[in-house]
């Protein structure tokens, strides 16, 4: 039966239900360097319910389409005393679009300035023009960038992205089957060794009001281009058109073609990394999602540390809850959590983060970034998470104190992740008969890590290694929909994979650089 189930899982993945079995976001994809040529263009994104939405997006000049969110810029801090200058050359290719307007590039906390904008260092790029922005890297961290010319309009239409700055001396650990050492580690978020991690993920939150985008495109019931809704007889200048557009959007009161009465901005879609569930469960750079290249799913092994970079790029607050364990707050807005003061943040300065600041829900506030570490260990479960018998531990040698912090994945025996008191203890409940169960695609048929069980025909199939799916989602229930249809929206999973599959083969979660000059297509 195990073989049949695993063969069925492989068949489903080959059929396109899952483009890659959880090797999806093993490192944050993006583009690296010190000089970037970006453009703003109009295009469309897809939603899982079969819809499309007109968007304004950043993209790399020369690429066929822009992307949502914009390309993640992955930068490297220089050695102490050697400032690294980052240059962003931005072209405004919204010229000719219904809502064409100036745009800009800013990144709070990085002191971005325009070197040649006609309207000054904090200036903008006119439709059809190209201008240059620069900033100096002063510290590592996670940041957001967006257009701050009429921010409410530009961000809502999609002009936003993330920036990741690595600390000096950073280098990925390339061996996926070796733990990242604490001493002398190069794979860390900040200078402190307490920010060492095994895997790294981005959770970029955005939201979308489809009717808002229709109005910007000029296809909504409220025709902003005529300016009649503001009592004007014409929009002679571009500035008058922009004023009319933003006023129309600010004061929306209409019945949409779908029959919904609107008052103000009212999102109907919520995204992780530019995709709503369940599109965000699939891999990077899918040909059928050309403007939405980034996956939103994560994976880890028990005991490993995942660095999660939360970026809020939309217009609403999202209470995001990662099931499975609490998160240790490392930094807020690129400022490391102070070692001696809970809930306080300061400049890194080499200080260790206060990992005692822990949260079960991350409030994603628009424009804010939060870096956390997250791991899952089966401590205090009251049963053996592997479903093993006591005899299975006869030859297992564990370091005293396991499964506490001394446990080292891929070095100690994987069975050592189970508490000594729980080893061989059966599940303290009986599983109901199959006729009384509802099944999800990630249910392996067994409640145990790395195990499979009986499944009815056509059920399961998305869990190739018998992992445990930890649901990660917004705690605002209305954000778990796509256009009023549940489930969907701001929902993903962290897949906790066993160290070995049922056949004894090592389950590898890739590490290493996942970005190149082609928007991460080398992942």
TrEMBL record:
GO terms for molecular function: copper ion binding. It comes from the Bacteria. Keywords: Signal. The keyword Signal applies. Residues 67-168 form the Plastocyanin-like domain. SUPFAM superfamilies: Cupredoxins. Gene3D superfamilies: Cupredoxins - blue copper proteins. InterPro entries: Cu-oxidase-like_N (IPR011707), Cupredoxin (IPR008972). Residues 1-26 form the signal peptide. This is Multicopper oxidase domain-containing protein.
């Amino acid at each position: 039966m195990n073989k049949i189930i695993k063969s069925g899982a492989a068949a489903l993945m080959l059929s396109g239900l899952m483009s890659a079995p959880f090797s999806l976001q093993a490192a944050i994809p993006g583009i690296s360097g010190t000089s970037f040529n970006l453009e703003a263009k109009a295009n469309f994104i897809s939603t899982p319910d079969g819809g499309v939405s007109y968007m304004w997006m950043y993209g790399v000049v020369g690429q066929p389409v822009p992307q949502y969110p914009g390309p993640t810029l992955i930068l490297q801090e220089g050695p102490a005393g050697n400032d690294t200058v980052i240059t962003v050359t931005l072209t405004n290719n919204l010229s000719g679009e219904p809502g064409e307007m100036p745009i800009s590039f800013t990144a709070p906390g990085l002191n971005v300035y325009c070197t040649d904008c006609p309207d000054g260092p904090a200036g903008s790029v006119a439709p059809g023009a190209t201008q240059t922005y620069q900033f100096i890297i002063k510290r590592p961290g996670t940041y957001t960038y967006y257009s701050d010319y009429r921010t409410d309009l530009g961000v809502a239409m999609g002009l936003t992205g993330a920036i990741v700055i690595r600390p000096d001396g950073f280098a990925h650990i390339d061996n996926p089957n070796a733990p990242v050492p604490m001493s002398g580690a190069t794979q860390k978020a900040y200078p402190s060794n307490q920010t060492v991690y095994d895997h790294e993920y981005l959770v970029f939150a955005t939201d979308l009001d489809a009717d808002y985008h229709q109005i910007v495109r000029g296809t909504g019931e409220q025709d902003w281009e005529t300016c009649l809704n503001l009592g004007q007889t014409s929009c002679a200048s571009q500035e008058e058109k922009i004023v009319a557009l933003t006023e129309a959007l600010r004061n929306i009161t209409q019945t949409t073609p779908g029959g919904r009465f609107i008052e103000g901005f009212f999102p109907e879609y919520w995204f992780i990394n530019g995709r709503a569930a369940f599109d965000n469960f699939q891999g990077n750079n899918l040909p059928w999602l050309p403007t939405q290249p980034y996956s939103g799913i994560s994976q880890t092994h028990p005991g490993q540390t995942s660095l999660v970079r939360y970026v809020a790029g939309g217009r609403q607050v999202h209470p995001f809850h990662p099931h499975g364990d609490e998160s240790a707050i490392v930094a807020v807005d690129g400022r490391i959590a102070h070692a001696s003061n809970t809930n306080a943040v300061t400049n890194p300065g080499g200080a260790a983060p206060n990992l005692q600041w822990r949260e079960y829900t991350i409030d994603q506030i628009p424009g804010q970034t939060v870096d956390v570490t997250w791991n899952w260990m089966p401590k205090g479960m009251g049963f053996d998470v592997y479903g093993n018998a006591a005899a299975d531990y006869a030859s297992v040698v564990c370091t005293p104190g396991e499964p506490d912090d001394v446990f080292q994945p891929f070095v100690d025996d994987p069975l050592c992740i189970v508490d000594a008191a729980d080893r061989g203890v059966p599940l303290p409940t009986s599983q109901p008969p199959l006729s009384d169960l509802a099944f999800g695609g990630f249910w392996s048929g067994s409640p145990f890590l790395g195990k499979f069980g009986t499944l009815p025909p056509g059920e399961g199939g998305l869990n190739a290694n018998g992992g445990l799916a930890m649901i990660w989602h917004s705690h605002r229930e209305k954000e778990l929909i796509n256009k009023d249809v549940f489930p969907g929206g701001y929902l993903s999973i962290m897949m906790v994979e066993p160290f070995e599959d049922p056949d004894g083969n090592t389950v590898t979660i890739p590490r290493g650089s996942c970005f190149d000059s082609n928007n991460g297509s080398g992942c």
